[in-house]
Amino acid sequence: MPIKQIHSIPAHVDRIWNLAPHPRLPLLAAATSDKSAQIYSLNTYFPVAQLDGNHKRSIRSVSWKPSSGLKSEAVLATASFDGSVGIWIRDSDQHSPNFGSTGESGNVGLEEWEFVAALEGHENEVKCVDWSCEGTYLASCSRDKSVWIWEADEDNEEFECLAVLQDHTQDVKHVAWHPNEDLLASASYDDTIRLWREDDDDWVCSGEIIGHRSTVWCIDFDKTTTKGKARLVSCSADETVRVWSRESMTGNTATRDIPSTFRSDPISENWQQEAILPQRHSGPIYAVSWSGQSGRIVSVGADGLLVVYQEVKTGEWTVIAEEEDAHSVFEINTAVWSKKWKSTSPHREEGDTEKDESKKGEEEIIITGGDDGNINIWEVTFQK
Amino acid sequence: MSAILSAQDLNDFIGPGLACINPVVVNRSETNGHTEIQIDAGGNPVEVSVNGTSNSATKTATQLTPAQINLSDCLACSGCITSAESVLVSLQSHTELLSVLRQSRGHIGAEDGNDLGSKRPKRVFVASISHQSRASLAAAYNISVDRVDAKLVTLFRDILGFQYLVGTGVGRQISLAYSAQEVLLKSGKFTDINSSSVEPKKPVLASICPGWICYVEKTHPHVLPYLSDIKSPQQITGSLLKRLISQETGASADEIYHVSVMPCFDKKLEASRPDFATGEGVRDVDCVITTKEVVQLLIDENIDFMSITESEDARGGNFQALAPKLWPPGKSWESSEGSSSGGYLWHVLAALSDEIKKVEGKSTSLKVIPGKNSDMVEYNLVVTDGDKEEVVAKAAQVYGFRNIQNLVRKLKTGGKTGARSVVSARAKKTAGAATATLVPTEYDYVEVMACPGGCINGGGQIGAPTTDGGDVFGLKEWRDIVENQYKSIRSSCVERHAVQEWVAKVWGSETDSLMTTSYRAVEGLDTKDAVPAVLVGDKW
Known about the structure:
heterodimer, A: mainly beta, Methylamine Dehydrogenase, Chain H, 4-stranded antiparallel sheet, 29 strands, 1% helix, B: alpha/beta, Fe-only Hydrogenase (Larger Subunit), Chain L, domain 3, 4-stranded parallel sheet, 17 helices, 16 strands, WD40-repeat-containing domain protein (chain A), Iron hydrogenase (chain B)
């Protein structure tokens, strides 16, 4: 199989719930059941900060704000079983320019992170958080069956609740924003995926995807689609990974000046199943990730299997790599694609990344986290 | 529950909790020792005490009754935000009302025949109807509110056999007048008003929405001190009706059965609050039915609303014959200026404006600043002096769960948000923005309602008509139609002194029992820390 493990971080004694690489910086955030979140350098794979002391129970999910407005500020949202969402900001004044190296000397926690806001409102366990493409909105979902949409101010300190969406009939497991539209998708224990859009000043359910026969654990949008198009991948306890595409949209077609009251076409989206990916898993599939670089999909689950799929032609997928027992005997909870950072140049400046984009275009890694507390880094050998 | 409108139609309707934990809380008896639950030969569940042996002769069996949840349980439990609809239905519903009515008629029959029937006299049936319910019926049947009123008179008096029927207008006028008085005292602006002993406390938050009250008591006790002490129109109407009708007919309070027709399911919870009971099992409001339950009642009783005769009494606008004798003429069915949720904010600002004029001799004008969404609006009372504008009073309308979230978060002073000291400086920078940002501590009054759109869009209102071809109206369009029906009801202004005089006449000087109530935090299991046993070790 053309996949190799290039590194393993023995990160925690407890289970790793979720991993999130920063979209622009060589930073990886990890959510764990020890009530803290860790930040690792993707240059060195060393820890650079530990975010703890504020959540009372496990952190289930982490999400980076895509653009924080201020260049040096990294903003992380954490979703916890204690019912709250935490907002953390790296202290820009204290952060050293060559922070990527801080881990090398083993000085864990050299970076100063500040807990700036707690978003309370969910009745119980928050399962997932995700920032919208421009960082305008933050979505959270919970065992209380609701999806909340928050709007952040530019300082990330004041949050306004814009919507409490209660259409799901069960525990909501995952939320994900479209890569360039303000379109939110949510996946639930009620076996459905719902889509949400803003209609005037209200957020409404614009679509429902029915097809999975068990809990939908994770969803991810296709990040390579052209403007106006949308596809998403979902994985479920029914042991399938499915790709869905938006066939049509109605509503909101007239100019925004016309109040929706006078519109005869309420906002709605029609989504159809495009493919069921080759079935490899035996057991619930907990995570999928759709690469923005190569367009590949990775899935992991309770069976410890790591599967990489590639689209041969639209709607037709093939398995290009497979790894059994990717976290030995343990279940794998999370998998995510990331750009491969040069571990040989720890003193890289953040600003350099743009220039390097072209030549590193094909280099990407898969990062997985499991019940063993390890973070494993994988590379798919590129097939010409 | 009636399928005309379901909670799903309102995207930020407060939903019930996942599972009610109340039936699981059992009083264990110490004396029985180890027990088991078994099913006996008749299929009934029994609790069997096991006295250390397997000898069946030593076992004693107790018949078990099914666990039941009543409204008081829901009020006392912090499990759900509001109670489950099924619980409400079993205790206060149109079927419950019909069965009470039948029972009462049954009594008359028994007494006519022989002495076997109870000696208890026939109950006195009294109904009070909210303005929002009348507007909803008018919209649903596409007729004017006047015609709805005329039909309601016939329905309640002639068909259902009610002796009294009033609108909640009088209760509302009293509630408005005293709410304004409360804000004047608590605003801290007019220290020379009556008692100076009242401590300024800003903002005063409207407390007539029972969904909002329930939510605060169960999840945000830090907000309790800000709640208005004044009772809602429903409860003031209830207190007045029970006392006046009792005086008039000689019937005791428990012989008077008061039904309130409301746009809201949570009004049932309000009516069951222990604060509004005047004795064992005697409440100011005995049964609350929602507007859509009225429709359900008509369907169940096979009554066609459109063919109900329109009472002449009502057509002339004269409802006086159906009200208690001391009831102020006219006011009962009239509406008030301002929002379709009772016009609290409007009336409070009017009173503040009057007082500023009286005390400081300044004229004020009203400035409306829209917020992020239509359910969040700020109102400023402004004194203009040349080209200088001074804001002398501020109020806001905050409707819907999402906006309530922002209100309670911002009232949590010293909370976890805004940990940095620079927050206030930064906040000022954005204060001049075109849309209003919620700053609760600057407000004198906030009209808070749990439903988006307020009471006119309450969960108990009749939904938009549908045909086979789909929805005839969009949700917002339908809301506007109901709103316009509401606005068509003639409104009268609240003359505070006239209201106070009338209250003094019928109630005496002890007005607190008519006017005020209190709220308390509901302590409960901290469900956030309780991990359900079945889920331990499972992925979730």
